[in-house]
Each structure stands twice: as structure tokens, then as C-alpha cells.
TrEMBL record:
TM ranges: none
Keywords from the UniProt entry: Signal
Tagged with keyword NADP: no
Gene3D superfamilies: 1.20.1260.10
InterPro entries with a match to the protein in the record: DUF4142, Ferritin-like
Domain of life: Bacteria
Limits of the DUF4142 domain: 41-178
Signal peptide (UniProt feature, chain positions): 1-25
UniProt KW Transcription keyword: no
Protein name: Putative membrane protein
């Protein structure tokens, strides 16, 4: 993997783990690194999970426009399908949670920048960066969802995290397989 691809993956992981306000960064960063020593707060979970899910859909829609690689196309279609369902379940769980929290309206500047970069790339450069971003994003999401499923504050969102975690773990394993492609 080229240095730029690793840098892109690192930026996505950081962006996904740092979407919360500064007061919430420590627990989110810990879960994103899969240390799971402390569960993220409910606010941090909501503020991180929603944009991360949107990123998976948007970046995969871009992939469908930019690649003809059958493995990447199949993966992107699955991400759009699964993350659309995850988004719907998240909104329902958030409504039932009675927290009064709303998901952030946007993606945040780091994710916006990554989306813009993916839109500008073509060919193998795009494919490698897309795979790296998906891998980093799903790794961070596994940590986030595992942390909240194990120690989250809100029962509805905790149940959502626990139910969703196996799907995100499966996606992460799929990403690791995509990284082995000879592009």
C-alpha cells in the first residue's frame, strides 16, 4: 500500500473517531482504537456513528461511479444496502432512546475532505484509497460499536450497537480481503 493510501486511511480513522466535541474525544478515540477500556458517551456514539454511516454510503456510491472492478463493485453495493438499513435502524433506536439527541446534519470537515478527494481520484488510486478508507472506517466503527454495546448508557442504543456490531465486523473482514486485491 502506498504512503498516500496509508495517510488516507489514517485520516479517515481519525475523522471518524474525532467527530465528537473536544470533551468527548477521549472515549471515542479509545474505542476507535479498539481498546474498549471505556464506553463512549451516548452523545459521542450518536455524533460519531451517524456521520460514519453516511460516509460508508456516500463513498460507496462514488465507488459505483468510478470502478468496474467486480469485487469492489459488489462490496460497494453491499455497503450501500447494509448501511442504508443500519441508518434506518439507528434513527428508530435514537427515537426510542428518548435522549432528545439528533444526529449531526453534516459529515464534518475531515470526512467532507475525504469525500471530495475520492471524487477527484480515478483508476487504481481511487480504488486503493476507497479500500483504505473503508478499512479504516470499519475498524473504527467496530471499536465504537463494541464499546457502546458493552458499556453504553442508553438501553435502546446499546441494543442497537450490539445488534449492528456483527454486520460491521463482517464488513471489516470484507475490507481486509479487499486489501489483498492486486490492483
Amino acid at each position: 500500500m502506498k504512503t498516500t493510501t496509508r495517510n488516507a486511511a489514517a485520516r479517515i480513522a481519525v475523522a471518524l473517531s474525532l467527530l465528537a466535541t473536544p470533551a468527548l474525544l477521549a472515549p471515542v478515540a479509545a474505542t476507535a482504537a479498539e481498546s474498549a477500556t471505556a464506553a463512549p458517551t451516548t452523545q459521542a456514539f450518536v455524533d460519531t456513528a451517524a456521520p460514519a454511516n453516511k460516509f460508508e454510503i456516500l463513498s460507496s456510491q462514488i465507488a459505483l461511479q468510478k470502478t468496474t472492478n467486480p469485487e469492489i463493485v459488489a462490496f460497494a453495493k453491499k455497503m450501500i444496502h447494509d448501511h442504508t438499513e443500519i441508518g434506518t435502524a439507528f434513527v428508530a433506536a435514537l427515537a426510542k432512546s428518548k435522549t432528545g439527541l439528533k444526529p449531526p446534519a453534516g459529515l464534518g470537515p475531515d470526512i467532507d475532505a475525504t469525500i471530495a478527494r475520492l471524487k477527484s481520484e480515478t483508476g487504481v488510486t481511487f480504488e486503493k484509497d476507497y479500500i483504505a478508507a473503508q478499512t479504516a472506517g470499519h475498524k473504527a466503527a467496530v471499536g465504537l460499536f463494541k464499546g457502546y454495546a458493552e458499556g453504553g448508557e442508553n438501553p435502546e442504543l446499546k441494543a442497537f450497537a450490539a445488534k449492528t456490531l456483527p454486520t460491521i465486523e463482517m464488513h471489516y473482514h470484507m475490507c481486509m480481503q479487499l486489501e489483498k486485491l492486486k490492483l
